[in-house]
Amino acid sequence: MDRSPKHEYYSTKFQIQDETINSTIDSLPLLVDINDNYKTIRELGSGTYGRVLLAYNRDQQQRFALKVLPKITTKFRDFQREYNYSMLLTPHRSIISTFETCYQTHDSFILVQEYAPLGDLFESIPPQKGLPEKHAKIIMKQIASALEFMHDKSLIHRDVKPENVMIFDADFHKVKLIDFGMTRKCGSYVRRLIGSIPYSPPEVCDATTNDILVTSAMDIWAFGVLLFCTLTGNFPWEHAQESDTYYNEFLMWQKRKRRKLPSQWFRFNPRLMRLFKKMLDPLPENRCEIHEICKYYDDRWINENVRRRPSNEDEGVEEDYSSGDSTNGTDLEELTKMLKDYGFDHQSENQLIHHPSIDIPNANNQITSDNLQFVNKHENGSDLLSHHNHYKYPPSSSTTIFYNTTSTTKSLFSN
Ligand SMILES: Nc1ncnc2c1ncn2[C@@H]1O[C@H](COP(=O)(O)OP(=O)(O)OP(=O)(O)O)[C@@H](O)[C@H]1O
Ligand SMILES: [Mg+2]
């Protein structure tokens, strides 16, 4: 099997120096009995369209990931499109390498890809806790670079989610975007899918006609949701529709119809909230572009004074705690800024004291981290988790992975 030279692109600005790798298929691939060349080791995963197998190539004495797409559900035209886009995108270092040789068996088309030994991001996110900011940033940088590479080629991924980010090392220094089955040209029209997933933007959730315009803003939205999931281990909402309480609360805050930030966003610093605002703008034309995300990498994203009790201590009920230490000058400034951003002015004591979920300031009316406990309290006694059990991750013994045939997300439902 041929392996074309792979050029490494990672910076946000890149140039294509060599596109010889851009091979396409025009006719049906080689008809083979896959067992002649490969020994199947195990199934790596499956999705809406196919199964991915870990297989050992006897000639090359190497392991590969084989994406097997059954002919019953995948037309040659669809396979051809996925192959062509996968090959075109292979030069980017944060996009999975697809090899030139592909196959068909009597019932399937097969793509050959490099094997990611550490599974996907979905499996790496601690449930209801999320990954540390440091790791989330490393992942975001790489996937943003991959998406920028795609968007520069007018290609829209359309299925950005943690299950489509593969991990190669424990520190997340090598992660790659996969799955170009939904990828389409920017400006084309696609049919409406039945149902939506937590990563679907409002223009897709609310679509009433069968002609949905493909835009880069779709990927930006999904990437914003992916960032939330990575940092928290929860989804921000189930559907970006007003009927979804969690989405509606965020939307009201976003539209300035509500001053107070919904509680599940409290832990994020104002700069990160500004980024979320731009990525999750309800109007696709107002959403930021992928290259703008890099402006936020140097900011602190998480307010360390707002922590969650680990979920195993409270059996899924979120509670808040803080270190109890008084904040230092820098923190105080930052926290005061944050209070303002959440709609509180620290000059106005009444506003602070009368807020139903804030602790009364100390004798000197100073804002300390104790006082700031309010920022992670739940205003209505409900917590995000209880509404998001469908999407708890990673798989636990009492849940099984269920592939919803009407959507493209891997969801976890109780048996
Ligand atoms: N190269 C790889 N190495 C290891 N595991 C992989 C690889 N490619 C895919 N997988 C696993 O298989 C799963 C399904 O792969 P993929 O997303 O390509 O299939 P799909 O049918 O197009 O999925 P979807 O439902 O997202 O459309 C991934 O979420 C991942 O867990
Ligand atoms: Mg997938």
Automatic annotation (TrEMBL):
Q: Which parts of the sequence are annotated with region: Disordered?
A: 309-330
**Family matches, as Gene3D superfamilies:** Transferase(Phosphotransferase) domain 1 (1.10.510.10)
Domain Protein kinase, chain residue ranges per copy: 38-302
UniProt lists the family membership as follows: Belongs to the protein kinase superfamily.
List UniProt keywords, sorted A-Z.
ATP-binding, Kinase, Nucleotide-binding, Serine/threonine-protein kinase, Transferase
Binding site residues for ATP? 67
What Pfam families does UniProt report for this protein, alphabetically?
A: Pkinase
Protein name in the entry: Protein kinase domain-containing protein
From what organism does this protein derive? Didymodactylos carnosus
User: What residue range is the signal peptide?
Assistant: none
PANTHER family recorded? INHIBITOR OF NUCLEAR FACTOR KAPPA-B KINASE EPSILON SUBUNIT HOMOLOG 1-RELATED, SERINE/THREONINE-PROTEIN KINASE SBK1
Molecular function terms, GO-annotated: ATP binding; protein serine/threonine kinase activity
Q: Where is composition skewed (Acidic residues) in this entry?
A: 313-322
